Amino acid sequence: MRRVALVTLVVDDYDEAIRFYTEALGFRLAEDTPRPDGSRWVVVEPDTGMSGTGLLLARARNEAQRARVGDQTGGRVGFFLHTDDFSRDHARMLAAGVTFLEEPRHEAYGSVVVLQDLYGNRWDLLQPAVPDGADR
Asked: Which residues of the chain register pLDDT less than 70?
């Protein structure tokens, strides 16, 4: 079966990015391996116990890459973090200092709020609505 395994997120600093994604967003550090060129292979992923798409945290190496840090999708929401308990995760992230750009909304498709990561990339925290007739 094919799946998207990793998405690269360009960051300024490995350690501050690891702290943010693990402590503020609740991801787990899946891998942190030094590479011969002085870089690191750093992967974080949602701590769900299930295999999903992880983030490869790649430190910017040049001016062109540094210019993309925090603006990898041109100011649009580019990342979507699904939750099974919106209120719990929203409250935990607020307590951890995550910046939310709006108040939570309850839409036909679910509960959602836009947040930004430590560099300014926009994320949706989303608890999808359960379709009528589906098991809860």
From this structure: 1, 48-51, 132-136
